[in-house]
Amino acid sequence: MPTTYDLEGQKRIYATWAKFYDRIYQRLLARPQREAVAAACACGPDILEIGVGTGLTLPYFTPGSRVLGADLSLDMLRVANRKVATLRLGHVRGLMVMDACRLGFAAERFDAVTAQFVITLVPDPEQALAEMDRVLKPGGEIIVSSRLVDDGGLLAPLWAGLAPLARAVGWSSDFKVSRLTGWAAATGRYETAHVGRGYFKVVRLRKLASAAAAGRP
Ligand SMILES: C[S@@+](CC[C@H](N)C(=O)[O-])C[C@H]1O[C@@H](n2cnc3c(N)ncnc32)[C@H](O)[C@@H]1O
Question: Which of ligand 1's atoms lies nearest the C-alpha of 77?
């Protein structure tokens, strides 16, 4: 998976990846994607999926959900659009070109915001998180799944050993879980609800219901 911090470069790369992305990643990413989607659906029906790509995750949402998908790459979205039509995914209410750092939605619009295998590709992850926070209702969750690195623990040396291999196939090898949980703690309006295990992790950050009364910093 490519790692570049140039948005136009991202678009060019994903114009190519769009053609064969599903064949490579459908099975590989299914476990964390299903876990993230289940957590999002538990928050409520209005869900924003950032970096929705070819829409691999879209069939996993419950029929009662109302999902909007945003992505930088029109080529990836075209594949997602075909999937929505072919599989008749009526819960998908719209797919749009959008940068994760500049979301064109009103404040507190969604019950959950998911970002799957995209946060490590965004030039300014904290700005993307701030945007997710802006559009998320109090009590909702930001749910991130990605290749995320533990800050310590028994498996840390194993992941460190695998880092050159990860880089060779384009996976991020240095995006730490603590970058997400640290951001959440620094806002004073989020709690870390869950940090998954394994090579691909799901991290859930819950916006406190009291965040509505507390307002924005
Ligand atoms: C590895 S794919 C993941 C696609 C999908 N979320 C999945 O789990 O299969 C990364 C996607 O993020 C998109 N992307 C990269 N940078 C982005 C940004 N700044 N804003 C929105 N989407 C972005 C890419 O165009 C691509 O479709």
Answer: 27
